[in-house]
Amino acid sequence: MIKEFLSQFPYILPGLEILYLIGVFFLAGRIIMDTKTTSKTLAYLMLIIFLPVAGIIIYFVFGVNYRKKKFYTFKIEQNKEVYAAVKKYIQKTHYTTLEERADEVENFTTTINYLYNAGNSPVSQRNDVELLINGEGKFAKVFEVLQRAKHHIHLEYYIYDNDEIGNRLADLLIEKAREGVTVRFLYDDMGSGKIGKKLLKRLKAAGIEVLPVNKITFRILANRVNYRDHRKIIIVDGAEVFTGGINVSDKYINPNPKQYWRDMHLYIKGEAAFYFQFLFLSNWTFAAEKLPELSEKYFDFKDKDFGRTIVQTAASGPDTQPSIMLSTNAAILSAKEKVYLVTPYFIPVETVLNAIKQVALSGLDVRLMVPKSGDSVVVNAAAYSYYEELLENKVRIFFYKKGFIHAKTMIVDHNFSCVGTANMDARSQELNFEVNALIFDTQINQQLNNVFIEDMEDCEEIFLEDWRKRPGYKVFFEHLARLLSPLI
């Protein structure tokens, strides 16, 4: 039937081919104009040229920033409104710290000033910081702190599962809401796909305010890789904060030793909470489309003295400058002795990759710890494609074998550390809502260093000569995956 139709109208097929080529031409122009990075532009162009039809579908599903205008206009204006409410707290904290602790942050003033000017992130000095290893360490502390909440609890999570730990936390939140504590809960609608309608209804019925940062109506059609809220934040009474790599899910408390998850989180008590409060309220205002009424109790530090640890926050998202990427790059280049990196996904932007190679070639002790086997075949292969050039540039690489290492940490010399939510990939550093805590403190640095050395016992170090012996088909697949890395 089709053959008969085409025989009667022989010009239809050539006409469709011409229209398709014209469409590809104009789509290529759109990709060149709309896509900021060269690597990502080339990746999308390759898709639409070498994968006819399928490449175009992939681009429109994953590549188009459908919410770009909404994020870059409406949300930025809302952020200004939120900042006006917290401005006096942030400015006072920042300039007081710079004045009183100038000697301790002297080597990092460029990064500190950049984060303040680009994203209003203050450096603060009155903080206590505690490392929380794995979900077992995190949730015990979370429950302890939430129990004593008096005024408000703010939560923002990428993944919140309807499982044992998720329900235990929900029960406690409901209990506190019934005591009169204001509880607000933001979740990522894609990442928290397993939260379940029943759990959400139970939270709302108890008076808890619950909102998705970006509501997904049709999950299968969602532009799901862009603008994820990948943050993990809890703020209690405006003074206590939890942040890091650990979501709300049973797998983080390691109920199954055969599926061991290794991760890192922080408990911060002090002035650093100001900026986390700003980040939460900015996203809450965006989701609710109105700024909640704020009182002094959201920034209640009167007559409180927490500690002397200096902390600053780097945050990134579609509404901000690429603060995490640039602050990571600056911290690496500031190193004088060593840089130790831990990340579950190593697909770095070129700027950070070059910084790592530069400090390693200059003779510094540079080490990278990554999972031996990731939770995605393509992502793992893309990461593998970078290791040969790192090894050639004197970077030591350690494969974590005990389980899946999900921590996102960085140690620079003896007085700078970073623990956060951002993976070392373009997605985390350019599109997602992310937050990293930068800690200027020798004690926390030493603790993280000790953890890194301990974790090395569960690692296998790889060497250049052995790495080059991998089968050719694996190397080819890895480099093929790397071509797609800007889209992952």
Structural features, described:
With 488 residues, the chain is an alpha/beta fold. Helices cover 47% and strands 19% of the residues. It contains 17 helices and 19 strands. It has helices at 2-8, 12-34, 38-50, 54-63, 68-100, 109-119, 134-147, 164-178, 197-205, 273-288, 323-333, 350-361, 377-392, 426-431, 442-456, 464-467, 472-483; strands spanning 127-133, 152-157, 182-187, 209-212, 232-236, 240-244, 261-262, 264-270, 310-316, 338-342, 346-347, 365-371, 396-400, 404-405, 409-412, 416-420, 424-425, 434-440, 459-462. The strands form 4 sheets. It has an 8-stranded mixed sheet, with helices on both faces. A 7-stranded mixed sheet has the order 1-8-6-5-2-3-4, with helices on both faces. Strands 7-14 form a two-stranded parallel ribbon. The model has no long low-confidence stretch (mean pLDDT 87).
Topology readout:
Elements: H1 2-8, H2 12-34, H3 38-50, H4 54-63, H5 68-100, H6 109-119, E1 127-133, H7 134-147, E2 152-157, H8 164-178, E3 182-187, H9 197-205, E4 209-212, E5 232-236, E6 240-244, E7 261-262, E8 264-270, H10 273-288, E9 310-316, H11 323-333, E10 338-342, E11 346-347, H12 350-361, E12 365-371, H13 377-392, E13 396-400, E14 404-405, E15 409-412, E16 416-420, E17 424-425, H14 426-431, E18 434-440, H15 442-456, E19 459-462, H16 464-467, H17 472-483
Parallel strand pairs: 2-3, 3-4, 7-14, 10-12, 11-17, 12-13
Antiparallel strand pairs: 1-8, 2-5, 5-6, 6-8, 9-18, 10-15, 13-19, 15-16, 16-18
Helix pairs in contact: 2-3, 3-4, 5-10, 6-11, 7-8, 11-12, 13-17
